[in-house]
Design brief:
single chain; globular; alpha/beta; 4 helices
Length: about 150
């Protein structure tokens, strides 16, 4: 089983890599076509776990294609149960972050759940704006600003 198995997770069905439909070029093209609609502002990538070894290569391909197709006109948000600080120096994570605009990190913790939090489910999670350009492996913590 992939993922963090957070108690109370909203998407526990996605933990099992054998569930769902196989991701392929048709699936990717369907997402890109959907993003071409003017009322769609961006792409949300969430679990299972986008940073798992099982998923990360496909996620990199998808977000890269999205940025190639739409540039900065579509935001890409990524939710991960990992603390980004623990993974930010890994080459594949660095590559992924070069295409991602915002990351919500940290495992969902049911005892820290608040219904009125924006973009996150529990108070331990952070909302991070990924910096671009010369600031490799850098982010701005927006958690207290939203």
């Amino acid at each position: 089983m992939e993922g963090h198995a957070c108690k109370g997770c909203h998407n526990s069905k996605a933990w099992d890599p054998r569930s769902g439909k196989k991701w392929d070029a048709d699936s990717e093209n369907k997402v890109i076509r959907s993003l071409s609609k003017s009322y769609i502002s961006g792409l949300s990538v969430l679990g299972g776990e986008p940073l798992s070894d099982f998923n990360i290569d496909g996620v990199i391909e998808l977000v890269k294609k999205c940025k190639e197709e739409f540039g900065s006109t579509k935001d890409i948000w990524l939710w991960t149960g990992y603390n980004l600080d623990d993974r930010i120096n890994e080459p594949k994570v660095q590559q992924l972050l070069s295409y991602v605009d915002m990351v919500v990190d940290g495992p969902f913790e049911e005892d820290k759940h608040l219904i009125n939090l924006k973009f996150r489910g529990s108070t331990n999670q952070r909302v991070l704006k990924i910096e671009k350009g010369n600031k490799v492996n850098s982010y701005i913590d927006f958690t207290g600003r939203i």
